[in-house]
Amino acid sequence: MKTIDAFDKQFPTEDACKAYLVAARWPNGVMCPRCHGKERIYHLASKPFHWICKNLGCGGKNGYRFSALTHTIFQDTKIPLIQWFKVGYLMLVAKKGVSALQLHRVIFGKHTGSDYRTTWYMCHRWRSAMQGEVIPLTGEVEVDEMYVGGKDKNRHASKRMRMNGSSGKVAVIGAIARKGMVIAKAIEQVNAETLQGIVQETVADDVSLVATDDHSGYRNLKKRGYPHQSVSHAKGEYVRGHVHTANLDSFWSLFKRGIMGSFHHVSKAYLPLYLNEFSFRHNARHNPDAFAELLTTSNR
Ligand SMILES: [Zn+2]
Fold this sequence. Notes:
Number of strands: 8
Strand order of the largest sheet: 6-5-4-7-8
Low-confidence stretches: 157-166
Radius of gyration: 22 Å
Shape: globular
Order of helices and strands: HHEEEHHHEHEEHEEHHH
Distance between the termini: 32 Å
Structural class: alpha/beta
Largest sheet: 5 strands, mixed
CATH superfamily of the domain at 140-283: Ribonuclease H-like superfamily/Ribonuclease H
Mean pLDDT: 87
Bound molecules: zinc ion
């Protein structure tokens, strides 16, 4: 597997992982994770990758000790960092998603001394670290909702049906800037309040287009000042010039195929984590520094 080779070259040892983590977290010099001070930070000669902060008020008279792992998802872990990194790295390069079981086989092969549940745990920690900040989307933005677990057949008819809340399916809403970022989240209710709220949260005021389908929940977007246009999926209209949700449709189908193909079943509780994963990967698709940036967001 090519990606494993690339990984092994870049991260041959535990120390290589720690050095990379330090450079990613503190590119301008080691900073105390407690008081955020950069002065009076002393390397502990006896312990590599450990420091002591002697800033007043941080750690009392003996100072505050921390390591490269303090306040990251790896803090207090008994799992070697090289395994953590391998899992996170392979998740990031697996365009279609990869299950813990697949990763476990790739990393450990038939080695029986390792527990699949450990890999599963690491995957989930990485997914929670993949929650991006919401930066309002600009340009032409598509917004659309969909349901996870439903049959794709009669999707649009069933959307309306499920609005009444009788189904156990989970609703998800996404907003995508064409050629830009995607933001996706699970929602409890598909109604005007929720849909408009998501648009207000994720779309910049100076957006040039908000394209949706004809769900009634988007009806008041124009009144709120958004350049809103919709296509009527109910009437079989999917594209009218610039007005369509094709980019988001592609993202959703990748997400659904990923879930079905790799995970088969996703419980409602974990859905936000999988949305994090797929969104992060989409948003990082042209970013060669994505792994380093993921490490910097892995702070608790
Ligand atoms: Zn400090």
